[in-house]
Amino acid sequence: MAQNFLSDMNYNRLIIISAWLLLIMFLPGCSTKIPPEIRQKPLNSPNVAQVREQLESHLSNNVRWGGIIVSTQNNKNSSRLTVVSLPLNSSGKPKRSDSSSGRFLAVVKEFLEPMVYSRDRQITVTGSIVGTESQKVGDFLYEYPVVEVNHYYLWPLEPDPVIIEHPFHSRHDLWFYPIYFPGTYPYQLNNFYR
């Protein structure tokens, strides 16, 4: 009986040590390079539409906004990003969506390379609202809320998927489907195979 108890204890110890080793191996994969200022949403952060409607009540409020860059303009002492606002997920990344609460201007007190901070890139900024500025979008005079940026994060480009289809049968080849061939398989490969 004592022998069974000792073997059970060793087995339990082995399970615990294995669980810790697996946890230690996989924890670095959960780490992120996203700054904590971008991940954490400020309290009572209004969206772009709310600021456009009631600017006076939101002046100097801290916000976390993000979206798709429309243009980057460098001035003598700062860079100005025109951004189409999109809803953000819990970590602050803009969600691809057809709904937007408007556009905003993000003023960064440093030079940003326009080829890197280019059109259609995703960005998230945190900062305070300092006012509005009127600019034309086409022939429409648009009132942009202006954010003086404290922190920003340019989201990495996501690679386009590579689709590989079955070479002999099309998607609509019903003779072999579903018993012999499952039809067309779209496979997604990473950039290594391109």
Describe the structure.
With 194 residues, this protein is an alpha+beta fold. The protein folds into 3 domains: 1-31; 36-154, Nucleic acid-binding proteins (OB fold (Dihydrolipoamide Acetyltransferase, E2P)), CATH 2.40.50.140; 159-194, no CATH class. The protein is built from 4 helices and 7 strands, in the order H-H-H-H-E-E-E-E-E-E-E. The protein has helices spanning 2-30, 36-39, 48-53, 55-58, and strands at residues 62-74, 79-85, 103-108, 122-137, 140-154, 162-164, 187-189. The chain has a 5-stranded mixed barrel. Strands 6-7 form a two-stranded antiparallel ribbon. The longest helix is centred in the N-terminal third of the chain and has 29 residues, at 2-30. It starts with a helix and ends in a 5-residue tail after the last strand.
